[in-house]
Amino acid sequence: MAEKRTTGEWQALDRAHHMHPFTDSKTLAARGTRVITRAEGVYVYDNEGNKILDGMAGLWCVAVGYGRRELVDAATRQLLDLPYYNSFFQTSTPTQIELAQKLSELTPPGLKHFFFANSGSEANDTIIRLARLYWSLMGKPNKRTFIGRTWGYHGSTVAASSLGGMPAMHTQDGKNLPEFAHISHPHWYLRGGDLSREEFGIQAARELETKILELGPENVAAFIGEPVQGAGGVIDPPMTYWPEIQRICRKYDVLLVADEVICGFGRLGHWFGSEMYDIKPDFMPMAKGLSSGYLPIAASAIHERIFEVINDKAGMVHHGYTYSGHPAACAVALANIELIKKEEIIERVRHDTAPYFRKAMEQVTNGHPIVGELRGVGLLAGFQLVKDKAKRTVFAPEQEVGIRCREFATQNNLIMRPLGQSTVVLSPPLVISHSEIDELADKVKRSLDATAKLFGFA
Ligand code: PMP
Q1: Where, residue-wise, is CATH 3.90.1150.10 in the chain?
Q2: Which of 20, 59, 154 to probe ligand 1 with, by most ligand atoms within 8 A of CB?
Q3: Residue 86, SS3?
Q4: What are the start-end ranges of the E strands in 275-357?
Q5: Is residue 215 packed enough to be buried (19+ CB in 10 Å), middle (13-18) or exposed (0-12)?
Q6: Of 264, 288, 284, which Cα lies nearest the Cα of 276?
Q7: 34-64+344-454 belongs to which CATH class?
Q8: How many Cβ atoms are within 10 Å of 175's Cβ, its own excluded?
């Protein structure tokens, strides 16, 4: 247990020793960090006792909400029985085996084998290595390049950040790893022009064909995409997009990777985004909602036709993490899946909460002076902030409109996140109730109104 300290004391220690992810440390030091001390349901509490509505479910992960005894008990029991053992020495632990089996029931057909990791980034790194191994075993060792998308996010390791298409991450590194290429994101509002959503979906998908032909199909290992791009600003593609992507992948013998780290485990009102968009992936990384974030765990699902080749021909696969399939994390994931099923959380999201959430957000954004488009599926929302609706012009990055909006949200005790191009997003816990959605909508409205006023609208 951490000691009791004043917020000022925590901030001083934080400033002195703690380097934060995705943070400008100078700005943070000037403002002082917010210290979150506990949480319950859809609310987190800071050291000052403020009750804050968590519109982001942590980092898109706390699907079943905070304070769920079932998950805590599962971890405690497992930690007492067997806190750790590895799966390298021709050994397994029961929760690893059960979780792999359970995932084979829940994931799309053909995904029968699961490799465990601790984070989405590691799950994607695993897939890069396994896909290249597969092609090499198939006698096509040149098929190594991965094609991702601009504003795609697949993690922060060296390989995963090259796989993703976050402009600032690439700029910071100076140079991307070789054998990673990108096509544009299917952002109809900003890129669709006069095309209908459906027409644009096909056009955006065809960029993949052009890129494969440019690189040479004999050099391309796989295409990766999130069913709905999350960190890029909640970009939900037109329904024509994924079928066309899938057709192109099959035509050129390019593997298809659906990154379900955000979309998986009910976020879109289905177990997986692949279900909703009818994607039949060869690999599928998952994390976040797998354990609702109570303990870190991720998995890479592997299609049986790929596993069989590796199993037949590879011999020892030189890949693994000390905490691959950590027994306690697996126990929490199993308890989390059981809870999602028992409480029918996904059905409730699909038929009840998501439509209610959508309607509430539409009421907030319809006719709003700076919201050009409301995007999203299930319990995901992206608010596209624009300075000129007729021309669909976004605010310049240096205007930091999303950050200003987040600051107003913070004043309203709401966690909302600026992401992508001039966008703020929401991804609340899947257990959010109607009255909590009403409160969320009211806080979002106040934050958007204040932002509009600041930028001279309204
Ligand atoms: N893939 C996607 C789609 C993600 O959204 C994220 C994290 N936001 C990752 C991968 C990386 O996961 P992690 O932060 O656990 O490494």
Answers
A1: 34-64+344-454
A2: 154
A3: coil
A4: 283-286, 298-303
A5: middle
A6: 264
A7: alpha beta
A8: 7
Cβ atoms of 89 and 319 within 8 Å: the answer is no
How far apart CA 430 and CA 271 sit, in angstroms, is: 12
Token couple for 182? 């990108």
CA dihedral 225, 204, 207, 252 (to 10 degrees): 60
70-342 folds as Aspartate Aminotransferase; domain 2 (3.40.640)
Between the CA of 367 and the centroid of ligand 1 the distance, in Å, is 33
ipTM greater than 0.95: yes
Report d(CA 186, CA 420) in Å as an integer: 13
Ligand 1 pocket, Cβ-based, cut-off 6 angstroms: 119-121, 124, 153-155, 226, 230-231, 259, 261-262, 287
Which band of pLDDT confidence, cut at 50, 70 and 90, is reported for residue 3?
confident
- Is the pTM higher than 0.95? The answer reads yes
In the chain, CATH 3.40.640.10 covers: 70-342
Centroid of ligand 1 to alpha carbon of 62 (angstroms):
14
- d(CA 278, ligand 1 centre) in Å: 22
292 and 333 in contact (C-beta within 8 Å)?
A: no
CB 357 within 8 A of CB 436: no
- Copy the structure tokens of residue 155: 């993690």
CA of 287 to the centre of ligand 1 (A): 7
Answer for the pair 151, 185: CB distance below 8 angstroms, yes or no. yes
| Residue bearing the CA closest to ligand 1, atom 12 | 120
How far apart are the C-alpha atoms of 203 and 192, rounded to whole Å?
9
Q: 79 C-alpha to center of ligand 1: Å?
A: 26
Helix (H, G, I), strand (E, B) or coil at 46: strand
Query: Quick one: which atom of ligand 1 is closest to the CA of 60?
Result: 8
Give dist(CA 29, CA 13) in Å, integer: 11
Q: How many Cα atoms are found within 13 Å in the side-chain-facing hemisphere of 188?
A: 20
Nearest CA to ligand 1 atom 13: 120
Query: Cα separation of 424 and 346, whole Å?
Result: 24
Q: Are 232 and 164 in contact (CB under 8 A)?
A: no
Give the residue from 161, 169, 166 showing the smallest Cα distance to 151. Answer: 166
329-361 per-position pLDDT tens digit: 999 999 999 999 999 999 999 999 999 999 999
pLDDT at 434 over 70: yes
Determine the distance separating the centroid of ligand 1 and the alpha carbon of 363, expressed in angstroms. 31
Closest residue by Cα to atom 7, ligand 1, is: 155
Task: Tell how strand 51-54 and strand 393-394 pair up.
Answer: unpaired
